[in-house]
Amino acid sequence: MRTHYPVVIVGAGPAGLLLSHLLHLQGIESIVLESRSREAVESTIRAGVLEQGTMDILNETGVGERMRREGAVHHGIELAFGGARHRIALTELTGRAITVYAQHEVIKDLIAAREAVQGEILFDVSDVSVHDVDSAQPSVQFVVDGQTRRLTCDFIAGCDGFHGVCREAIPSDVREEYQRVYPFGWFGVLVEAPPSSDELIYAAHERGFALISTRSPMVQRMYFQCDPSERAETWSDERIWHELHTRTESDDGWRLKEGRIFQKNVVAMRSFVATPMQHGRLFLAGDAAHIVPPTGAKGMNLAVADVWRLARALDDFYHRDTEDALKGYSAAALKRIWRAEHFSYWMTRMLHRLDDASPFEQKMQRAELEYVVSSRAASLTLAENYVGLPLA
Ligand code: FAD
Ligand code: DHB
């Protein structure tokens, strides 16, 4: 059994899997350690919106074939408020677009690509711990099939999400954390129905936010703002439809199409950044280092941008004999991350019902929405952030 790998990656989410794929294309070997089962990883329902840059990376690295076939390219989104819908023409404004394609489908495509070249992914590992990240030869210990194993490596990539163990390996005296927890969450449903709209609808209503997204011609994804402690299983379908209809109602007679609800879940919302994202030979990427509220659809896209940068820095280290990009990884990645943090916070504040807002602040919220949909400059600000700023 092998005991050394150039790179050990903790976590088989979009960040960890894409990193191992990019490293493979650069001739750098890695192994991915994942605590959940393959089935769980391939079926967890999460993100849906891929930025132009994410689409480009998947296409350019040979894992975009099914996304091109089954994903839906969108050239605009709609903001709904005050009984009217307003289009933000993403492509007209920016020349770029987004694709709606579920995160777990991206994960399936990446696992298939790793499998096709005998890439190593160990599922169902437990008790992962990282060691000696300050030295030239760190190691990762874990349990798999009841056996404790230890792998040495040149680098550890902490791609283990918000609840992972890698972030904690950065000593607390050098780690800073910035956080905001929102007093609301999203109630998400999957519905067996045809699309109600050609484009995503982000709705701001007195009763709270709602989002109408899609998955396929037969399955739709919808969300509405709720109390973060809400238990999804206690909500009847009738009550869910009532909220969704009320919050998306429109003066032009348009109405949401109903269907069988076959999945319900509640997600809490936070903004979070840990800095620096590296210490010695340990590098964090994706949700392990930062979280955004889902309103801007940025979480998975940020994870992709992080590992794209990290893979290039490792390529420089192994093939161009320079550590400059590795040394500058955290600082460079954080520029994009703080921009996305602001965008996600701004979208969240603009579109949600803020119970702590005074009547004055509520008027400010409406004035901002009116400006965003009526000014080209303001629409462009939303659009260029939503489709994703250039990677480099
Ligand atoms: P994760 O996907 O969390 O993967 C981390 C992996 O590490 C997991 O598989 C976990 O099991 C594993 N792991 C954890 N601890 C350990 C350990 N100790 N040992 C081994 N393995 C471990 N983002 C977007 O870009 N667009 C969207 O439209 C969007 N919508 C969203 C909607 C919802 C409802 C939610 C919840 C999120 C949404 N996001 C969206 C965010 C996106 O899903 C995340 O940002 C993304 O999953 C981050 O990827 P990651 O690989 O960094 O982390
Ligand atoms: C979806 C999720 C988001 O967070 C978002 O902003 C748009 C769409 C989705 O799951 O389809």
TrEMBL record:
> What EC number(s) does the entry state?
1.14.13.33
Q: Does the keyword Oxidoreductase apply?
A: yes
Q: Where is the FAD-binding domain?
A: 5-343
- Keywords tagged on the record: FAD, Flavoprotein, Monooxygenase, Oxidoreductase
Q: Which domain of life is it from?
A: Bacteria
**Protein's GO biological process:** benzoate catabolic process
On whether Ligase is a keyword of this UniProt record, the answer is no
Coiled-coil stretches: none
* A GO molecular-function annotation: FAD binding
UniProt cross-references to InterPro entries, sorted A to Z:
FAD-bd (IPR002938), FAD/NAD-bd_sf (IPR036188), HB_mOase (IPR012733), RIFMO-like (IPR050641)
Q: Which NCBIfam families match?
A: pbenz_hydroxyl, PRK08243.1
Name-wise, this protein is 4-hydroxybenzoate 3-monooxygenase (NAD(P)H)
